[in-house]
Write a sequence for this structure.
């Protein structure tokens, strides 16, 4: 290879790397971890999913325009909301809250970055950058909803003690809500704190592998970190606030958690 | 208002109140009155529905059917937050919500002056406690009395007490009982839930005896029939 672009593995190289999966399967078998089958399935799924995504991206980049890219993001938001909302047993309509939280976070973050011209409005940029936003929003919204659901279980007596004093649900729920939000958001803050020190983040790694100058790569990464921080806060807070509204009925009563299925 | 002569006005009116949870009847067609200025005990063995009935009086639970009125107005027609300020409640093991005694008294009423806080703590015999202590460090009886002060802070017309002394040792229980008796003596209406009629009898004017969700007897605590255990 003469270009500055790194040597991208050929399909033969990919096949060769499957040796490493084989090593994982052998270890699982030798140590009787009972994970061999799962490892094989996971590796096969990764191959199939990425091949499908690669083909789709190729099509969208070549033929589809910006609307296709946004449609792609919308589908990601739907899937992410489904996953994040599924974590919150006991919260009525949790998936709807997650969809709103993630959807608004993604739309605002991408809207700001595009409006300010920080990133290019082309599918090749919108899809991967949006994907990072969706994924972070999904994790924090899911964690926030899960912690909110836990608070309903663990802190029912404290919440009802406040309701019994005539406080509004929002006031009665403030303490568990804040604890839930801190727990959900601290990982995002910590990741931002240690970026570059402990891990070289994905976007930057990708750019460097693709032959981009590190000084240029870090600028991209800084934008990515800042946008993820904003998206995390928007997604967690909005979905938890919506969840809180559905946790109380019209007589300011805390709903009963549905029995775990 | 202390009740003097003649029949005391009705504070709560229960009209065929039924509560079903998980297909099982917890309360089954309970009809009765709770009088103003009285200390009323709802007694019965565990699982008889007495705590559920108490929680209905400030709408922490809603009857499946039937109706509960407060001073003649059906509960759903009253603004629930103002109802809960008029009908105070203290749980069996009240949760401490703040990190200081004076903050704890102010949870429901932020605008209380220091003098108001002092007066409330005096009413529950906690005037000797330093205001900056952590409520969680108090003994069970002191926490129970602090929760009473917190409930009194919003100026309720009636107090609902769920087994106020069952989690306490004898001495602590007596301290709580004497505070309740003092409040009742000043004319505050009290509805308390207890599995122990003998204990409650010294404090109360009326007893409602529940068994398996049904009202099986009511009247003077010295004369009602209650076969439940202590």
């Amino acid at each position: 290879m003469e270009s500055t672009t790194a040597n991208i593995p050929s399909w033969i190289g990919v096949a060769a790397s499957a040796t490493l999966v084989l090593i994982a399967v052998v270890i699982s078998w030798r140590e009787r971890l009972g994970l061999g089958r799962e490892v094989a399935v996971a590796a096969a799924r990764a191959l199939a999913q990425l091949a499908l995504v690669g083909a789709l991206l190729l099509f969208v980049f070549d033929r589809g325009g910006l609307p296709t890219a946004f449609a792609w993001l919308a589908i990601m938001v739907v899937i992410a909301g489904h996953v994040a909302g599924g974590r919150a047993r006991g919260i009525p309509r949790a998936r709807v809250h997650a969809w709103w939280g993630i959807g608004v976070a993604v739309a605002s973050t991408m809207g700001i970055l595009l409006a300010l011209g920080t990133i290019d409005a082309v599918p090749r940029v919108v899809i991967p950058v949006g994907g990072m936003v969706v994924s972070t929003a999904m994790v924090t919204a899911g964690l926030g909803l899960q912690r909110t659901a836990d608070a309903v279980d663990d802190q029912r007596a404290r919440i009802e003690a406040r309701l019994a004093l005539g406080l509004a649900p929002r006031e009665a729920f403030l303490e568990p809500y804040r604890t839930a939000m801190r727990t959900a958001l601290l990982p995002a803050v910590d990741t931002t704190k240690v970026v570059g020190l402990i891990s070289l983040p994905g976007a930057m790694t990708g750019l460097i592998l693709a032959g981009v100058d590190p000084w240029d790569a870090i600028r991209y990464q800084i934008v990515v970190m800042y946008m993820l921080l904003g998206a995390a806060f928007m997604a967690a807070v909005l979905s938890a606030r919506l969840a809180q509204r559905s946790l109380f009925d019209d007589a300011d009563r805390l709903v009963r958690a549905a029995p775990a299925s | 208002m202390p009740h003097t002569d003649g029949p005391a006005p009705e504070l709560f009116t229960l009209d065929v109140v039924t509560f079903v949870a998980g297909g099982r009847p917890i309360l089954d067609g309970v009809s009765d009155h709770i009088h103003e200025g009285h200390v009323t005990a709802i007694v019965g063995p565990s699982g008889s529905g007495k705590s559920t009935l108490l929680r209905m009086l400030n709408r922490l639970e809603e009857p499946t059917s039937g109706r509960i009125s407060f001073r003649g107005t059906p509960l759903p027609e009253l603004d629930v937050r103002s109802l809960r300020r008029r009908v105070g409640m203290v749980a069996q093991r009240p949760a401490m919500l703040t990190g200081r005694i004076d903050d704890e008294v102010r949870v429901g009423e932020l605008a209380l002056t220091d003098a108001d806080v002092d007066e409330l703590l005096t009413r529950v015999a906690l005037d000797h406690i330093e205001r900056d202590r952590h409520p969680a460090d108090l003994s069970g009886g002191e926490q129970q009395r602090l929760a009473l002060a917190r409930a009194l802070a919003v100026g309720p017309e009636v107090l609902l007490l769920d087994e106020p002394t069952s989690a306490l040792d004898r001495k602590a229980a007596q301290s709580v009982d004497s505070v309740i008796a003092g409040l009742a003596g000043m004319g505050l209406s009290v509805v308390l839930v207890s599995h122990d009629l003998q204990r409650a009898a010294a404090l109360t004017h009326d007893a409602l005896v529940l068994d398996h969700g049904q009202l099986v007897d009511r009247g003077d605590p010295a004369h009602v029939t209650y076969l439940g255990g202590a």
The radius of gyration of chain B is 17 Å.
